[in-house]
Amino acid sequence: MEIRKSNLDERVKQLQSLGSEEFAHINGPLTAHLVGTYKILERWQLDESLCLAGLFHAIYGSDPTRAQLLGTDQRAEVAAMIGEKAEELVYLFCSCDKPFVLPQIGAETKVSFRNRFTGETSEFPAHLLNDFCELTIANDLDVARNKSEEYYHDDILAMFKRMYPMVSSHTQAELDLLFVKFCA
Question: For the whole model, what pTM was predicted?
Answer without folding.
Answer: 0.93
